[in-house]
């Protein structure tokens, strides 16, 4: 799949970015992280051949959005897990406070009953 020629590109050596993409493009070079500037896909990130528009034989393209989404999904799952644990702790504290409150009212009722009898 060919992208329109209006592209800006940036190289990236971040190891977390290399997990979801090929280590080499079709012409044997390391892909670089690019940002599309086309009207159809403005600001979309993708991995493309370093030789794009220099050599015509390589059409390497891989979306970089899925990698970012996977990382974001993992962060959100972790955050949800922490929030769930915090909610469980708060529910236990509430149940304990409720039990202490009910027990306090029962004790107060018994004291009043014994005082007037």
UniProtKB/TrEMBL annotation:
Keyword entries, A-Z: Coiled coil, Membrane, Transmembrane, Transmembrane helix
Protein known as: Zinc finger GRF-type domain-containing protein
Entry's transmembrane regions: 94-113
Disordered: region residues: 1-23
PANTHER family assigned to the protein according to its UniProt record, in alphabetical order: ZINC ION-BINDING PROTEIN (PTHR33248)
Coiled coil stretches, renumbered: 66-93
